[in-house]
Amino acid sequence: MELMAGANGLIVIAESGSTKCDWIGLDRQQKEHFRFATMGFNPYFHSADFIATTLRSEPKMRPWAEGVERLFFYGAGCSSPQLNAIVHSGLAEVFPHARIDVDHDLLSAAYSTYRGCPEITCILGTGSNSVYFDGQNLREEVPALAYILGDEGSASWLGKKLLAAYLYRALPPVLDHALRVDLKLTKEAIFESVYNKPNANVWLASFARLLGQHPAEPWVQDTVREGFRLFRDIHILCYPEARSVEVNFVGSVAWHFRDLLGSVLEEAQVQLGQVVARPLDGLVQYHFERKRIVEQLEAGNPSH
Predict the structure, then answer these.
(1) What is the CATH number of the domain that holds 186?
(2) What is the phi-psi region of residue 232: left when phi exceeds 0, alpha when psi lies from -120 to 50, beta otherwise?
(3) Is there a single domain that holds both residue 160 and residue 185?
């Protein structure tokens, strides 16, 4: 049944990487009314018009949009007021009755893994990043440089390593065969997708799935370990608290290669905490139990 805006409206939480956005809609009693995924939205690559048009065309979203009272959107690239405004504008076109908050996916990662103690939370998905969270304040020691200059250990970084080795004819036979014979991938096609087409980071990241299909291959293990060590040294050991708090991870790469991740952290006496593929359920728990969003709504003060 469709819920209308107002006292009985929906609380929606959306968590978006560059590849995929997870949506969940709940009422004030925390009853789940929908859960689905759309493409990811990143203001570096997507305009407000694109976001609005794409969501309006999503059949799973249409029955609910008018009834959304409160929307929390956490997204990759939502790292400044100017970038957040792009996403906010697009969402406001689709959810006309909702109070909307747009924030960084680092915040969603920190919220989703927070259990009452200071933590370092890392993203290892399409891209990579890290943050220190003490329950009140977020702190970044070094910036994320995105897929061209940074994103160490991420799916896009792994995709670049795989394709470079392929073009250099340095892959083991099983991986070379998959790209050359199964996918019929040519240098021209790679260059076109990387240098001329939009969303090159997502395209590069898509090849990380091939590594996940061959986790025991020595080339795969060595490459993933190299990426994790770079990420550890740049994005974890930069924090003074790196060896005194748990280090939690959100993202598909961390999840699929969690055993290798644990061994790389152990080399540096860093304590691995939670490893979560997608943070949505942790976000729901945080908003209902720690942010007490229902009490805020009932008091008429839905502050973020």
Answers:
(1) 3.30.420.40
(2) alpha
(3) yes
Say what the pTM is. Answer: 0.80
Number of domains the chain is built from: 2
On whether the CB atoms of residues 171 and 165 are closer than 8 A, the answer is: yes
Closest CA to 55 of 31, 36, 82, 80: 36
Is 105 part of any domain? yes
CA distance linking residue 172 with residue 162, whole number of Å: 11
Per-residue pLDDT reduced to its tens digit, 86-120: 999 999 999 999 999 999 888 888 888 988 889 99
CA 65 to centroid of chain Cα atoms = 23
Q: Specify the 3-state DSSP secondary structure of 262.
A: helix
Q: Which of helix, strand or coil describes residue 208?
A: helix
Model pLDDT for residues 229-273, shown as the tens digit of each residue: 999 999 999 999 999 999 999 988 999 999 999 999 999 999 999
Among all chains, which residue has been given the structure tokens 């970044």? 140
Torsion of CA 176, 180, 185, 187, to 10 degrees: 70
Residue 167 forms part of a structural domain: yes
Segments forming the whole domain that contains residue 128: 117-276
